[in-house]
Amino acid sequence: MLKLNPARSRYSVLYCFIIWFLIVSQILRIAFCVWQYNEVSWNMIDLLRTLFTGLFFDIGTIAFVSLTAVLYYTIMPNRWIGSVLDKILIYFFTALTVSILVFTFFAELTFWDEFKTRFNFIAVDYLIYTHEVVANIEQSYPLPLLVGGVLLLTLLFLFIFYKRKAFSNTFNSKASLKTRLSVLAGFVAVALFFGSFIDNYQAEWSANRYNSEISKSGIYSFFAAFRNNQMKYADFYTSIPNDKAFGIIKNKLSDPNTKFTAEGYSIHRSITDSVASAEKKNVVFILEESLSGSFLKEFGNKGNITPFMDSLAQKSIFFNDLYATGTRTVRGMEAVTLCIPPTPGQSIVKRPENKNLYTVCSVFKSKAYDCNFFYGGDGYFDNMNAYFGGNGFTIYDRGRGSVLSDKIKTTRNNINDSEVTFENAWGICDEDIFNKMLKVADDQFKNKKPFFNFVMTTSNHRPYTYPSGKIDIPSGTSREGAVKYTDFALKELFRKASQKPWFKNTVFVIIADHCASSAGKDEIDVANYHIPAFIVNLPEEYNQKINKQCSQIDLWPTLFSIFQWNYESDFFGKNVLDPNFEERALMGTYRKLVLMKKEKVMILSDQKKQAFYSWNKADNSLKSLPIDQSFLEETISWYQTADYLFTNKLLK
Q1: Distance of alpha carbon 484 from alpha carbon 477, whole angstroms
Q2: pLDDT digits (tens, 9 = 90+) for 258-283
Q3: 500 near 517, Cβ under 8 Å?
Q4: Residue 583 contacts by C-beta under 8 Å, 6 or more apart in sequence?
Q5: CA 352 → CA 345, 346, 415, 652, distances in Å?
Q6: What is the tens place of the pLDDT at every residue in 577-614?
Q7: Model's pTM, two decimal places?
Q8: Which of 104, 111, 211, 433 could crosslink 376 through cysteines, CB 3.0-4.6 Å?
Q9: Exposed, middle or buried by CB within 10 Å (0-12, 13-18, 19+), for 352?
Q10: Which helix (H) or strand (E) is 148 found in, with range?
Q11: Residues near 538 by Cβ (< 8 Å), separated by ≥ 6?
């Protein structure tokens, strides 16, 4: 039997480091529980399971983190132990690793504050876009204090190691070859066990989402998301035969104005209006960042932070019960350009092979519209320029230096410094991007081109900064201020646009990309997918409040029907104004896929599992129901067919 006291051996520093990590990780876990005091389950069994599940995943995490150190201890000859080289390497890399982990713990706190979850694919994405993320951190948090805190805590923890004689024991103890190989074998075995048999989703043991998230280890979750950023539907989700799935969806998409024009696994069809119109109204489409329905007075908000949008709701086509497909901007973009349910894994906007798809731009292009995409930051973020440029849009963005692939055949125009009055980490303020769009629209009108201008805003996003003096809430102080500025900027847009000669022939479409938050204790927080949508400036007789439950993917089919256009379609969305429209909403995370019909909710999970609930709108709670097989097959069909069409390059 191997006799080793790690606290008084060559492995003393490693021992202290591991114990330190496990303790701090549990403290962080307890802090999250206290943070979500009203949402987590405090049942003693649930609490203990949360902590012990977390400890289990922390052990796997620290085994991976420590492997390099263990390898070093294994190969370093005994005669060099305590040498200058040995001391430099151990001091330096111990300090470096501790500081990185301390920073990671801080990052987990800020990530939880924003998303109420452990690191996931969003954190993976943020690692890529360093300019925006670093600038956002600088503008949202006191960076000198943060860096100083990291350094101070690192020194404190190293001092504790020193006082416990971890360093002196490590530099004055030798280890036999048998000991070194045994320790190495132990760590490798643990790492292989976790790498081969333990998946991050196994931490999701609780029906309470907060307990499951807190049970995870942030670093382990990060690398799990890195590995699984794209997921094949058939490998991870419950399936039915493709013939049956496409049959169900074709039946859902059929109506008297629809004629399917392709055989086999396709939903391509011709949409014909009985009174086809050749009218070409200009369209200004505004995708508003993080605009939850709960911000509007129209939906019960008492803060009066959206007075202009609340007034628009009374004089527009206003969607009362519309839901976002996802929780990120790229999901909203996917939904409003492709009119497709959210496929599992990463959004199509960010996937390879996503150019030359059949999008709403394809419909506008077929009618000789000039199509443009406006973004106030650098459109390399979230792959936006590649996606929009590769699908027919001319690009207007800040152009900080990123270069489009030569395969993307589009024109990219920079928004110049002279056109910018305010800018933060994510881009220029809403007023500035709207002013740029107005200027381009003037040129389009002079050139007698009907236009489709797609504007993505950024102001309603942390750090919540905007031009001073515009509203009565100081810049950078709250989300409410950012929302109120967003509303103010929209009012200014309409004020300026109303003076343009092209205004009377222009329809404005406004919709959120997603809600400001999507976190809740249940698998899916339904209320945090509810978003506002407006179609503005049609003749007055069109104005109405639509109370039908519907999705982002239904917006364009509804507008094209109002325009009385004949067009080709690969869209999953339908015209909400059709008297026979079947109410439903499609939503999800990158792992969970949801079909909601009135108060019934089916959730598909990536372990080929499914759950069925009734949704209580009054308190936003889910109550488990026995599986309805017909409902399940319809849910599967929406997502299986969407994934099949994209994967097999049939959305062209």
Answers
A1: 12
A2: 999 988 899 999 999 867 777 899 99
A3: no
A4: 548, 549, 550, 597, 598
A5: 13, 10, 27, 14
A6: 999 999 999 999 888 999 999 999 999 998 899 999 99
A7: 0.84
A8: 433
A9: exposed
A10: helix 143-163
A11: 316, 317, 507, 562
